[in-house]
Amino acid sequence: MPPSEDENLDWLYRRDPKPTGPKRPDEPEPTRVLPSDQLPPTGGRSGSTARPAQQPASPSQRPGQSVPPAGAGKPPRRKRPVRRGCAIVGAVVLALIVWLIAVPVYAWSQVHRVAYEPSGSRPDSQPGTTYLLVGSDSRAGMTKKQQKEYGTGHTSGGRTDTMMILYLPPGGDPALISIPRDSYVPIPGHGSNKINAAYAFGGPKLLTKTVEQNTGLRIDQYVEVGFDGFVNVIDAIGGIHVCLKKPIKDKDSHLNLKKGCQTLVGKDALGYVRMRKADPQGDLGRVKRQREVVSAMAKKAASPVSFLNPVRYWQLTNAGSDSLAVGENASMISMARMMIGMGKVSGGSGMTLTVPIADANAYTSAGSSVLWDKAKAKAMFDEIARGDTSGLKKYAN
């Protein structure tokens, strides 16, 4: 039989002829096409054959060249010194914190403690905290040369050159109230005299009792600093800046200042707050200068430079420790609150007052004295006793 057309094509294209007879036992199974629903998942489109993904050849790779595995042949990554830098910064911060804490702790250990709370009846406690701040004329710690240089004299014992009440209310603005040292008031057990004599008669206890009985306020904390401590603090902060409308010359305080703005240190700063004979306002002018200087001291002491400069921080923290005395109930926290309150006053968010005065130059058995306006003074202290400072602005000066 002649070959069919299909057989001729099989010969031409070298195709295997279609089986025409039965399948032999050793003949392999012909390839079959599976339905699309039976194909294994390939990640491609349905019915398509999966092909291995090819990585794009790099510019330096020649055609046919195999691609090395990721990371092969690369130099090991060098560890950056981040951990070492963080450790150094952490050590510096820790050292600074320790320094900021250790210095005041040491200075606090050098501060003197005094018993100031009087016996007997006392006013009831008012809301907030009331501090009695005393600048005594004690010469303790001063050499004879310093006493001569500063014009303090050689008087033994001590009196109070400066008296202020710092009141920190539970809410509202703090108030810093000056009590003129020549205030003529009753002193328990000693008749009437200038209030600074109370310290000479009976020390901190009698002074506190005198202030409490004449103001109706209970004193919660007591702080006293002598001449030497005041000078050291002034020098530690680099002096105080003042602007004088006219020159000041006072023989008793060894003061000779020119007109205009200037920085006062040492004996000039001390003389500036003590001088009164050359001031036409006498004791009232002195209390204003005292508040001015105390506010300036608090402002400079609270500046960032005082904490960031280690030398200044050490000098300032330890400047008045030898001549500083605090009440037996004082703590570092109570002193920190006092400094914060003084900072608010010096920053303008507090009030500065003087006890209302009826006569600044009255003649008494103790000589020229200051008489309080009793009605106004009582009204002012009554407002503080209620824990309210909002109405004290009318007494501000």
From TrEMBL:
Residue spans of biased composition, Low complexity class: 48-74
Basic and acidic residues bias spans: 12-30
Keyword Transmembrane: yes
Residues passing through the membrane, by range: 86-108
Domain of life, per lineage: Bacteria
Domain Cell envelope-related transcriptional attenuator: 159-302
InterPro entries: LytR/CpsA/Psr_CW_biosynth, LytR_CpsA_psr
Region Disordered, annotated ranges: 1-81
Keywords, alphabetical: Membrane, Transmembrane, Transmembrane helix
Pfam families (alphabetical): LytR_cpsA_psr (PF03816)
Family (UniProt): Belongs to the LytR/CpsA/Psr (LCP) family.
Name of this protein: LytR family transcriptional regulator
Organism from which the protein derives: Microlunatus elymi
